């Protein structure tokens, strides 16, 4: 049976092949620069396989993370172990996470916040983030532009991993311009010696936000001094051509 945004074994394996540790879209360098002045621990919710967390650890930052997918955390822990890095990693979700520390920064790269598709729940999570920050702490997160709501589904893709062939096909099953959500059916297949070994079907849902809408949600949650950058260029304001928006809120 399909589940939404669960990142099971095949989905996590494909993610790790497609977005290996350290692969940057400009975000790793941007986050490293913004956190260089950070005086204390950093939390990365939805840490995934550690694509961003591990390069930040290697730069000497104190970063901890959590993720709802144990499969994704397995990749992250293994990558940390191979590099001799120590990181606090826990299986938790956006809406239920609990941390003993107060953080100097919370970061959510790559639009992972959009996995929360209910706006009321998203606003509640923003309030939880606000409560988990030290006075003067910062929330830094990425969102795809609202225009991506109408983008077509991705083309079929494949990856070779040793003797294995992994494939991914995506079919858009719902696009709701009123709720600003999309839902796609993702079919992952594992092939070996020409035979289909395993199949995994997941539903992948996202919510898209307008720039002003999200700024108002941040202020409602108690954030101030909100800065918005386009395409990981500090000081460059959002435009219709931008592919990613980054919000920095104290």
From TrEMBL:
Protein's UniProt keywords contain DNA-binding: no
Keywords: Methyltransferase, Transferase
Record keyword Cell membrane present: no
A family per Pfam: Methyltransf_25
Domain of life, source organism: Bacteria
GO biological process: methylation
Sample GO molecular function, one term: methyltransferase activity
Domain Methyltransferase: 42-137
The protein's name: Class I SAM-dependent methyltransferase
């Amino acid at each position: 049976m399909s589940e939404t945004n669960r990142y099971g074994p095949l989905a996590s394996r494909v993610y790790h092949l497609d977005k290996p540790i350290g692969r940057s879209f400009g975000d790793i360098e941007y986050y490293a620069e913004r956190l260089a002045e950070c005086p204390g621990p950093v939390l990365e919710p939805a840490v995934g396989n550690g694509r961003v967390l591990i390069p930040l650890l290697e730069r000497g930052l104190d970063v901890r993370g959590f993720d709802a997918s144990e499969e994704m955390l397995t990749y992250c822990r293994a990558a940390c172990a191979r590099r001799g890095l120590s990181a606090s990693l826990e299986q938790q979700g956006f809406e239920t996470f609990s941390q003993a520390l107060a953080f100097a920064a919370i970061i959510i790269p790559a639009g992972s916040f959009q996995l929360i598709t209910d706006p009321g729940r998203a606003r509640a999570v923003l309030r939880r983030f606000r409560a988990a920050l030290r006075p003067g702490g910062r929330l830094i997160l990425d969102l795809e532009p609202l225009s991506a709501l109408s983008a077509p589904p991705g083309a079929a893709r494949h990856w070779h991993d040793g003797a294995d062939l992994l494939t991914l096909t995506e079919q858009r099953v719902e696009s709701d311009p009123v709720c600003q959500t999309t839902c796609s059916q993702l079919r992952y297949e594992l092939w070996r010696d020409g035979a289909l070994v395993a199949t995994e079907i997941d539903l992948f849902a996202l919510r898209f936000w307008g720039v002003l809408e999200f700024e108002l949600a941040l202020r409602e949650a108690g954030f101030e001094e909100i800065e918005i950058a386009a395409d990981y260029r500090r000081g460059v304001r959002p435009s219709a051509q931008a592919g990613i928006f980054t919000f920095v809120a104290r």
